[in-house]
Amino acid sequence: MALERHPESYSGVLFLALWQVLATGTAHAQPAAPRPGFEVVSIKPMPTDAQVNFYGCRGGPGSNDPGRISCSHWRPTQTLPMAYEVSFPLVSYPKANGEMPEYQIVAKVPAGSTKEDVRLMWQSFLEDQFKVKVHRETREMPVYELVMGKGGFKGKVWVDRKPDDPAEVSNEPGTSPKRDRDGFPIIPAGQTMGFFTGGTAHFVAPAGTMKQLALMLEGRLSIGGGTPRPVVDATGLTGKYDIKLAWSPPADNPQAGKEAPEGQSMLEALETQLGLKIRQGKANLEILVVDHIEKVPTDN
């Protein structure tokens, strides 16, 4: 991985050789194949007056810009859960680490890379540039369980579309997604998107899974002073579904205004629209413990 320098930047497989074992009684280890890495990464401190209208990362395999990943208002703690395949509440950070600075990142992705390749590229980037060191351990902790409501699941089983179906048409880079007649963004199967318009929040996951829905709920349940907890899928639904959910964000926090907010809260919509609900519980879960992470990247 090459790291562009900016004036304003901070800037094995173990195998046995049988004939040698027979001859000498020893085996030789070959180093594991290196993890894939980004071809080029530009990383700069986020300007305080930046006119950027999105937070997080976009692009990469499966998007309409597969060869590039762009991030704005980015912190290493933001990408770390994805890179190591854990959810945000299942990461334990050093207590004395404090708030991370924000960065702008543009990463060039090698042609033909998969989403799994990109996940490993982020691992390499975090460990090389922010000196991330981690280990895993199991702990019992409070969780939210995603379970069936009284009336059973109300969502639709996913039916594959033809490539030329209008609902499969990709959106142009830098433009707002097209929407269906119910106001939900139209995105390719296998992706997820949250979309806010006209005072209503939408979540859509064509060919989505209960795990994807649980991850969305996990992030939303900690907003507005909520307690961050993992959301564990306990529905027993193992297929792919056409997941659509719409709710009124003000209804999630009725204390914010003097008048009763209009529309359903997220949890009310979850039960009436999808036939699912959230309950509290406990579970033994594997967490990722971050032993060390730097605030400023190292220019290799």
Topology:
Elements: E1 2-3, H1 18-24, E2 40-45, E3 56-59, E4 68-74, H2 76-83, E5 91-92, E6 103-108, H3 115-129, E7 133-148, E8 156-157, E9 193-197, E10 200-208, H4 210-221, E11 231-233, E12 241-247, H5 266-274, E13 276-292
Parallel strand pairs: 1-2, 5-13, 7-11
Antiparallel strand pairs: 2-6, 3-4, 4-6, 7-13, 8-12, 9-10, 10-12
Helix pairs in contact: 2-3
Number of domains: 2
Task: Output the helix-strand order.
Answer: EHEEEHEEHEEEEHEEHE
Strands of the widest sheet, in order across it, are 1-2-6-4-3
Estimate what percentage of residues fall within beta strands: 25-35%
Shape: globular
Mean pLDDT: 81
The oligomeric state of the chains shown is single chain
Show unreliable segments: 5-27
Q: Largest sheet, described in full?
A: 5 strands, mixed
The helix/strand class is alpha+beta
Radius of gyration: 22 Å
Helix content: 10-25%
Distance between the termini: 9 Å
Number of helices: 5
Number of strands: 13
Account of the protein in words:
- The chain is α+β, with helices and mostly antiparallel strands.
- It has two domains: 1-137, no CATH class; 153-274, no CATH class.
- Helices cover 17% and strands 29% of the residues.
- The chain has helices spanning 18-24, 76-83, 115-129, 210-221, 266-274, and strands at 2-3, 40-45, 56-59, 68-74, 91-92, 103-108, 133-148, 156-157, 193-197, 200-208, 231-233, 241-247, 276-292.
- Strands 1-2-6-4-3 form a five-stranded mixed sheet, covered by helices on one side. A four-stranded mixed sheet has the order 5-13-7-11.
- A hairpin with a 2-residue loop joins strand 9 (193-197) and strand 10.
- The radius of gyration is 22 Å and the shape is globular.
- Residues 5-27 have low confidence and may be disordered.
